[in-house]
TrEMBL record:
This protein's name: Uncharacterized protein
Alphabetical list of SUPFAM superfamilies matching this protein: LuxS/MPP-like metallohydrolase
Species this protein is from: Granulicella cerasi
InterPro entries: Metalloenz_LuxS/M16 (IPR011249)
Length: 100
């Protein structure tokens, strides 16, 4: 994504998926009220939720490339290493008080 654009189909799928996720989150009155309250709290205006729908439609291939170039840099990289050790021989369980 840093060096070549996403395809038209990929961009269309992304937009459809994001719009659907936002609209699905408004599926009932409680969810709608929660979303409106969340937007009011985070952005100071509940109408910002509807601006997000417009913003999704306005995403371009150039936007994706610009964000990818800013995000996918060495300074943002996290590296993890998993080490496997050879299993140890199982120990016999401790016996308390002898056999019954």
């Amino acid at each position: 994504m840093k060096t070549e654009d996403v395809t038209d189909d990929e961009l269309a799928r992304f937009k459809a998926s994001e719009r659907a996720a936002l609209l699905r989150s408004l599926g009932d009155n409680a969810s709608l009220a929660g979303q409106l309250a969340d937007y009011q709290t985070r952005f100071g205006d509940w109408k910002a939720m509807f601006q997000d729908l417009a913003d999704i439609d306005n995403v371009t291939k150039a936007d994706i490339r610009r964000v990818a170039q800013q995000t996918f840099v060495t300074a943002n990289r996290t590296v993890a290493r998993i080490e496997f050790k050879a299993p140890t021989a199982p120990q016999a369980p401790a016996v308390e008080g002898g056999a019954r």
